[in-house]
Write a structure and sequence with these properties.
Layout lengths: L9 H18 L7 H37 L3 H7 L11 H22 L22 H31 L3 E3 L13 E3 H20 L5 H24 L9 H26 L1
Antiparallel strand pairs: 1-2
Helix pairs in contact: 1-2, 2-4, 2-5, 4-5, 4-8, 5-6, 5-7, 5-8, 6-7, 7-8
Length: 274
């Protein structure tokens, strides 16, 4: 008698799968995560699998693999200029949660709702139709949209920053449009901006392809990512140097939170007024 993966305890699947992946990452010659980062990523991945299943897991894995890849673009040049990510791009715990805390909270919200702890429901884990006009699926659908938008925002930010630092021909401070060196906090470039948009579109389409959002949700994710990354650049240009607690990781949390909230507001406005 065959047993499908959906009928197996999700905690067991998550622990076994991610422990295997952690072991492979540990012995891999190219380190994408620090030892501490590996443990935190392991915990995050288990949380995502248990709450959102393989669909949510696919989104976070796409972000991690593509984000790690773009971080290494032009690494030698960026290291020579002193603008590369520390540890040659290997992520530590602060990077894991700076990028994924908002998404993890969205996933946890979906998990709590679907558990029946707040609202009794016998519905499936992942809503089939996003953004219905009412009913129990609405909170989950908006949280799923926010989840995808948070990673769409972060991937757009990472890609724009890394491509801009490697290939940006003209870099401007977003608040004044004055030319500044590549790698300056709050700096933007045409090359980086376009690359960030492409990245946000790509991960949003992943979310659509696996059924977490609909095509309209793709538009909300891309637009929200653009809004959030632009505001993140403004924060970098105006506030980050003034407050020691406003580290890159804290700014990343604000960035993904803005993207998630913006996507929900866009969707809610569309549902309510269109």
């Amino acid at each position: 008698m065959s047993t499908s993966i959906d009928s197996v305890n999700p905690w067991l699947v998550a622990v076994v799968l991610n422990t295997i992946l952690l072991g492979l990452a540990w012995i891999a010659p190219k380190k994408l995560l620090t030892p501490a980062g590996l443990f935190h990523a392991w915990f995050l991945a288990i949380l995502i699998w248990v709450t959102l299943g393989w669909q949510g897991y696919a989104v976070v894995m796409f972000y991690f693999l593509v984000g790690s890849g773009v971080t290494r673009i032009g690494m030698a040049q960026k290291e020579a200029e002193g603008i590369a990510e520390k540890r040659s791009g290997a992520r530590g715990p602060e990077n894991v949660w700076g990028s994924a805390l908002t998404g993890a909270l969205c996933a946890l919200g979906v998990g709590i709702i679907n558990s029946g702890f707040l609202v009794p429901t016998s519905q499936s884990l992942i809503p089939i139709t996003p953004y219905p006009q009412g009913g129990l699926h609405l909170p989950q659908s908006l949280l799923l949209l926010a989840y995808v938008a948070s990673f769409s925002t972060k991937l757009a930010d990472t890609t724009a920053s890394e491509v801009g630092k490697a290939y940006g021909k003209s870099t401007f401070l977003i608040t004044t449009l004055q030319p500044v060196p590549r790698g300056t906090e709050g700096a933007v470039s045409l090359e980086g901006t376009l690359a960030g948009i492409v990245a946000s579109v790509a991960i949003a389409f992943v979310g659509w392809g696996i059924g977490l959002i609909d095509l309209l949700g793709v538009a909300w994710c891309v637009l929200a990512a653009f809004i959030a990354t632009s505001l993140e650049s403004v924060i970098g240009a105006t506030l980050q140097s003034k407050y020691t607690w406003l580290t890159n990781e804290v700014v990343n949390i604000f960035n993904t939170l803005i993207g998630a909230i913006a996507s929900v507001l866009l969707a809610w406005t569309w549902i309510t007024f269109i």
